Amino acid sequence: MNHRLRPGTLAAGALTLTLALSGCFSSGTSDAASAGGGRISLAMLQPPRSGLSPLSDDAFKLSRWSTAETLVVLDDASDPLPALATGWDQTDELTWRFTIREGVTFHDGSALTAEAAANSLRKATEASPVPRILDGVDLQVDVDGTTVVLTTADPDPLLPNRLSSPQLSILSDAAYATGAVNPVGTGTGPFELTRVDGTSSATLERYGDYWGEPAAASGIDVDFVPDGTARAAALRTGTADIVEAVPAGQAASIEEGLINEVPMPRTNTLYLNAETGPFSDPAVRAAAREAVNRAQIIASTYEDRADGASGLLGPALPWTVDMRDDASYREILAGRPDPAGIDGVKVSLGTFTDRAELPEVAVLIEQQLEEAGFIVEQDVREYQFIETDALEGAFDAFILSRATVLDSGDPVAYFAADFTCDGGFNISQLCDDAVDQAIAAAAQTDAGDKRREAIMAAEARILATDTAIPLLHERVIQGEAAGVTGTARDPRERLLVTGETQVETQR
Prior knowledge:
Elements: E1 2-4, H1 9-22, E2 39-44, H2 59-64, E3 72-74, E4 80-82, E5 85-92, E6 95-100, H3 114-126, E7 139-144, E8 147-152, H4 159-162, E9 191-197, E10 201-206, E11 219-224, H5 228-237, E12 242-243, H6 248-251, E13 259-272, H7 282-291, H8 294-301, E14 306-308, H9 319-323, H10 327-333, E15 345-352, H11 357-371, E16 374-381, H12 383-391, E17 397-403, H13 412-419, H14 433-443, H15 449-464, E18 468-480, E19 484-485, E20 502-503
Parallel strand pairs: 2-11, 2-12, 15-16, 15-17
Antiparallel strand pairs: 1-5, 3-4, 5-6, 6-8, 7-8, 9-10, 10-11, 12-18, 13-17, 13-18, 14-18, 19-20
């Protein structure tokens, strides 16, 4: 395989709120941009959990600030494209060679070389715990001139996709000088991370020697604001230019033009226990499937800020939509059994409180199932106290909000974890030879159209069992003040502030 590409009271109340919020934000935000080329103020949902180490989920912050970059990026269809690597070749089923881009410098002034890139990848393979994207991957990293040579123990058609994960960002050697990985001043992106104030704030400046187009804005002032009401108020009052994750309940209080709904690769699904209990009968599962009213759930709990689910994969993967019209897909679903008549069948229904919407969804699902003749007993706890029971099949039904596209940009890992006989997250206790074979076929197919076809065939096989009833696909609400342009609205949540982002008008 070869890949090469060219590169009054109300007023008083508002004033009080504004003054109160000013304590939540770093002093840099008061000097934020009044025109293009100025600074951008950003309010983020979660503070760093691991000191902004790229080997953790904090890596996604670094990529959303355009400070750390990877060898590969993904296009909208999740196909790999060159980034810090200009191209790659697969020389045999286990070996890949990535050519490193010339003329790139790290923020500390050192040059990007094949050895520097290999050093970052080696640090990732040696980390404990290993970054999630490399879980189960035995990867050897070598250097040959200007190329990084990667060898896997088993064939891995998704290796270029894996290298797009922010957890495999390439940093200078200086980042690894101590035990902890330090991203300050060691990335390659259009913005240099210059200061981190614990879990409170971070500061970035335009990097003048960036290898691509220089950033339009002079810098970014980041504040970590876990409170959703405070984030929403920051957008309303102009305290922040860009706001992550505006709560759905706050969206109605914000001027419509300031919020943007981005489909997420996250599906709320009703899992049915195929191994024991009433739902071990496929016809009873079919009755539950027919009882579900998605529109009611979306209108009531999500205030119509979600998408109804016709499959496990949603509009964050737009290529899935038309493929469900394929005759072979419909033929697989046509084999589902007719619903059984239900009269007083008792079922247990579990979910968790950590995602505020799920207990409300459980109430509606209970009502819908009971209208169909089921008798439902709910069990709702914090996730940490219910996960073990869910995975061990203690419930007849379980409602879960599940990320469907993991770090590789590909849903096969999710299918394998949730729906194969040996899957480590198989809440529905499903073990079906046809499903296992379909998922295995998708896993072994190279990235591209053929893999997407295999993925949809696997989805159809899973849905045909009625062990997973997709309810809805979540959206994230991104706030952007008037005059903000050039932001990314990324379903994978890897990008946000880009080199093109700027504030064109005064707040």
